């Protein structure tokens, strides 16, 4: 006598459900971290309990207390206030880098894929040459020529990040250009410029968004490193990379709070950007299913 066994359809397996829930949870966590950092940058003057540059010689290296939740630094400045105010330059600089690189890389990639020929070879060679130079090296050279500051860091890092977005988008644009709908639009008499602007580029925007989100964390890390070596934000500016550098002297004295808190914020934000980029890649591009 045989018995019948009922099995659940494969498409409704609990493993897939767990992966979906876990994927949404990671994406929600990453988005929450980024949103909190952005809100801190926007509302720092309202949230910070003290002036971030207010020096108090009587409160040097104080620990956590009701007056100073995260303690104070070597000049008696409130660390929580400096972290909140430091979010603005720490986020604006990499945002400018990734947006500039994203816009410039997309324009170069789409135009190269559409025009082809010598122009495509020129753009590809240019991107390969820039890709061969580390962003920090370019920024150091630019700082030596034009002087230190976040503006110089933003300009040079924007140039350095062009290949990271341009090369990926160009490959996708070449595939998109050969799709049937592009040939149909050309047969209808639509100009190449309108096809690129109204159809080709919008179809590539999800890929550009994923690249920008992923690159944002690395750009923040590069900007912070630039400030750490003294060529980015200058004292007494509250900026996360500069806070790590300013707190390095206190580490030997057993007062690592300033470097520790600022470094932890940088690490958490970079990880969140990577997770956000991976999550957007699965959602928008259908990767990793």
Automatic annotation (TrEMBL):
Main localization, broad class: membrane
Gene3D superfamilies, per the entry: MetI-like
Membrane topology category: Multi-pass membrane protein
InterPro entries, A to Z: BP-dependent_transpt_permease, MetI-like, MetI-like_sf, OppC_N
CDD domains xrefs: TM_PBP2 (cd06261)
Keywords, in A-Z order: Cell membrane, Membrane, Transmembrane, Transmembrane helix, Transport
Segments traversing the membrane: 26-48, 91-114, 126-146, 152-169, 204-233, 260-280
Top-rank taxon: Bacteria
Compartments in which it is found: Cell membrane
Location of the ABC transmembrane type-1 domain: 87-277
Keyword match Nucleus: no
Pfam families to which the protein is assigned, alphabetical: BPD_transp_1, OppC_N
PANTHER family: OLIGOPEPTIDE TRANSPORT SYSTEM PERMEASE PROTEIN APPC, PEPTIDE ABC TRANSPORTER PERMEASE PROTEIN
Family indicated by similarity: Belongs to the binding-protein-dependent transport system permease family.
Listed name of the protein: ABC transporter permease
């Amino acid at each position: 006598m045989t018995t019948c066994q009922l099995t659940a359809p494969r498409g409704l397996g609990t493993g897939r459900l767990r992966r979906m829930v876990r994927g949404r949870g990671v994406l929600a966590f990453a988005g929450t971290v980024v949103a909190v950092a952005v809100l801190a940058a926007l509302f720092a003057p309202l949230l910070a309990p003290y002036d971030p540059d207010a020096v108090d010689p009587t409160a040097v290296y104080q620990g956590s207390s009701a007056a100073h939740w995260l303690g104070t630094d070597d000049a008696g400045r409130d660390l929580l206030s400096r972290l909140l105010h430091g979010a603005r330059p720490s986020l604006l600089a990499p945002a400018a880098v990734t947006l500039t690189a994203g816009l410039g890389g997309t324009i170069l990639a789409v135009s190269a894929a559409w025009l082809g020929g010598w122009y495509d070879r020129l753009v590809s060679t240019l991107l390969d040459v820039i890709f061969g130079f580390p962003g920090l090296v370019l920024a150091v050279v630019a700082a030596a020529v034009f002087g230190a500051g976040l503006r110089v860091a933003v300009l040079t890092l924007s140039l350095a990040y062009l290949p990271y977005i341009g090369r990926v988008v160009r490959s996708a644009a070449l595939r998109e250009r050969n799709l049937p709908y592009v040939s149909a639009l050309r047969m209808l008499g639509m100009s190449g410029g309108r096809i690129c602007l109204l159809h080709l580029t919008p179809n590539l925007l999800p890929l550009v968004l994923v690249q920008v989100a992923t690159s944002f964390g690395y750009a923040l890390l590069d900007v912070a490193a630039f400030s750490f070596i003294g060529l980015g934000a200058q004292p007494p500016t509250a900026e996360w990379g500069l806070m790590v550098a300013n707190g390095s002297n206190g580490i030997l004295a057993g007062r690592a709070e300033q470097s520790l808190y600022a470094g932890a914020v940088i690490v958490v934000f970079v990880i969140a950007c990577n997770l956000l980029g991976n999550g957007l890649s699965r959602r928008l591009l259908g990767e990793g299913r």
